[in-house]
Batch of 3 targets.
Target 1
Amino acid sequence: MKAMVARALGAGWVEEDIRIADPLDNEVLVDVKASGLCGSDFMEMSHGVMHQPPVVLGHEIAGVVAKVGSSVTTLKVGDHVAGCLVQFCGKCARCLSGDVGLCRNPEEAVRPAGESPRLSDANGKPLDQGMALGGFAQQVLAHENMLVKIPNEMPFPQAAVLGCSVITGTGAVLNAAKVERGEIVAIIGAGGVGLNVISGALLAGASKIIAIDLNDATLATAKKFGATHVINSGETDPVEAVKELTGGFGVRYAFDVVGIPATVRQGYDMLDRGGTLYQIGMGGNSFELDSMPNIFGRKAIQGVFMGSGVPKRDIAALVDLYVDGRLNLDDLISEEISLSDLNEGYTRLKDPQVNRVVVTDFS
């Protein structure tokens, strides 16, 4: 099958004809119909944080089940599915409590050592499977726990982005923060994930949704998605601006979708007493925190991974919201491209007016 393979760090993707194994046990083979371009795949290609080349990346996928392993119970051939990179066993104490993102046995979602690889190149040499999905290809072989059945009327491009950017952004608000109706939220970074934080705040009934970014075009899109106030942090001190909008107090809920030291600092400093900064972005490095003001102000910083929820439950709920017209996914999809144009697609993502690019042509 055709796939885009990262052969060297920072060198982009090359088109290759590779081999994919037949499904074993709880594995499901999916004909991919849509595959979203996510910044974390570009980070992996560039730096090899968790996956070293050669590797097939891509984790925002939707498609149709082609084959199932002998132990699969939740899906059948012909089902439409969306994928999510959260690997979980479904049996440990964490999973049974509903915290599958902290599963004790995530390795159960991949093939054990000694088994033949899921992916190999034309010469039979193993290829790493990015995030146990490897969606920049015509087919994906994944554990059934990482796939969610969706209605046939759900468009594949919109379904593909559900499993990462949408579930992360909306889940940060609804699962991690549990924002209450009438509250005020601030979102630092109004790109693809940030727009979904805005959508989550809308669903939660926030009274003010403050979007913060460096680009006016991005902020205009944020208003289209439901931001009530926007702040260009390149022109205005975002901490002072947020406090001005909140009577000098700050917000109980701040979401940092960027994750660099400067935005973490801003997010923390704009908190009201008793407020929490929810850290979504993975920009890297650290920042200093004075313990005494933190203790007396009862502030907190909480990490958010993939929306801190249950993908099989949350993706199904998000599909229902989209079908009911209550969740804006259509405006997330800025462009659809062919698999062969993957490198150009990532170049297009640098345009602040491009929200999400999705591969829909796998010929």
Target 2
Amino acid sequence: MKIAIADMMDLARGATFLGTGGGGDPYSGRLFAEQMIHRHGAPEMVSVADVPDDAACYIIAMMGAPTVIVEKLMNGKDAELAISKLESITGRNADYIIPAEIGGVNSTLPIAFAAQRGLPVIDADGMGRAFPEVQMTTFNVYGVPICPIVIANDHMESTVIETPVAKSAEDIGRAVAMRMGLAVMFTGYPMTGADVKRASVPGTISLAIGIGRAIAMGRHEGDPVEALLSYLKSTDYFKHCGVLFDGKVVDLLRETTRGFSIGRCIMEALDGSSRRMEVIFQNEHLVARDDKGVRAIVPDLIAMVDRETAEPITTEALRYGQRLKVVGVSAAPQMRTPQALACFGPQAFGLKEKFTPIEKLL
């Protein structure tokens, strides 16, 4: 199928939900993708199974802090610079584009770039959600080298990173991104089609569109949060889900530091019980705790949505007094293996709690 302008609102909204608070500003990303589709035509979306094993598959993403990315518009030239330089290094032109993560701007940017280049986009990503660091992907977990990496900014400056250690690539890349404005284009993980089949999370663009459509239908029928949960429960990845908390924001700490948007959000229940929930975030939500302890923790998904409309709220859009529901959702199975948890489980973020699947906490 082709991804048309008519699909972009649902895709952006669904990807923002899966982005668990991060992934960059969905609004500007959607507008940019719509502009590229209008100018160049709708890109074809293909399933993982239909990608030839020897195809050259490249990612394109924004790297930085959501609080900065929301203030910067895109023009596509920096993305073209990054991919073109990676192509010159590998000696292979891109045959397919694949999202690094299905969250916010990083779900819509690959579609915009695919339209700009006239390339198909693969219905998959490397997380099934969003994460703050570039080594936190199933690509890395299942053996795809992260380098060479190319980082480019809107001043058409670029840097190439080569290191055999994925975490070192993140640390070096984060320092470069901070120096280049903290809203840069990133490409790495050059893959073959065989790599994509082995190391990706399939079907996530379609799932994002389905989530967005479920929310829209729920608004029409009167209960968007329930419609969202019903759709999630019909999927293979996200079938374990539920509302963890219903309340209003009573305290918010958010700062841009170390190249991330880091902080916590405190919510108080609306039922007069004085119960509270704390959500800790590093670009994305990492752990949700209430008076009884942990209610959900990475790599499972923690999303905040408007309690009336189910509109997903990113960390940079959190405001005092907002009335929100916190929704917990199971991660894809390949995100929960021992090797995956070693890469992006709770201890990777310095959390003291061990991972407990959300189906045991609901």
Target 3
Amino acid sequence: QLFLEKYGYFSEPGAGTHSPAEFTEALRDFQRVTHLPLSGELDAPTLHQMALPRCGTDDGESRAAGASRTSPTRRRRRTAQRGEHPCPVAGGRWYKRHLTYRVVNWPSYLPQHEVRLAVRAAFELWSNVSSLVFWETQDGPADIRLTFFHGDHNDGLNNAFDGPGGALAHAFFPRRGEAHFDSAERWSLHSGKGRNLFIVVAHEVGHTLGLEHSPVKSALMSPYYKKLSKDFVLSWDDILAVQNLYGKPAKGSAVQLPGKVFTHFQDWSTDLYGRDRQQRSLSTYYCHSFFDAITADGDHNLYIFKGSHYWVVSASGNASDPRPLQTRWPGLPASIDACAWSQLSGKFYFFKGG
């Protein structure tokens, strides 16, 4: 009952005061959201699902969405501040398109510049598919603040972190603008051991923008932790949800990138925020999700340009190794400003300078 209470599966607060019928219905709601057989009993699959690592933000509107499979307009209704019983409230979005964020602290065993790159990439996942623009600030106030805490951190006992496993992080809906991460977890910046910080930050940023948990299993906003794979990081449900709140990108179409882009932050050899611009790794992981230009051809292949190299991402999400620009386009200068592919001529057009 404490688990179901914490994650918003009872219509009224008060653990220990629910009737057997209410408990059974809450279990069915949980099983529906997590795509389990609707037994209404604490069977082995249900107990296993409850023990999996997940986001500590409650499942709110995804209960109803799981039953009705409604469109992402469900996410216009938001829960109250953490520590209170969830209830629908108005104003679950930001009323501006340019938002600042700040990484307040981070695990001491992770390099600061790599953490900041991973966080920036997490924000860019959302700005790539919406009208939002994000800017990092290193000190002072910010619209969205990311902070690591141990245990009880004055968010209410219901939101105290529980050590390794369980709730990995939680976030507040607009316009409080806070995401908290459990310092007791072993965080990682790559696809090996530990919780992938990039994927968890990207999920919690979704909450700070006003997105509820999604009942779609493949969605980034699904409540349960998922390892970073080669598939697209954002599902159709995530994209429709954020566009429902903030609209489509101001210029061009939404850009989706596969998880392979983000799996090896630890290989990055340069600090984009410092003066160290020495040797850059030409690993197969195309950089930091910050590119000179992106365009697509008639076969829906994505061409990503950065410096003196380019990458091709097929429609299925498979990425090529880095290829020198000069090999395909002799005489083309590095660091172009823009690129477009013409359906009429079948040619690429590049732009650089004034």
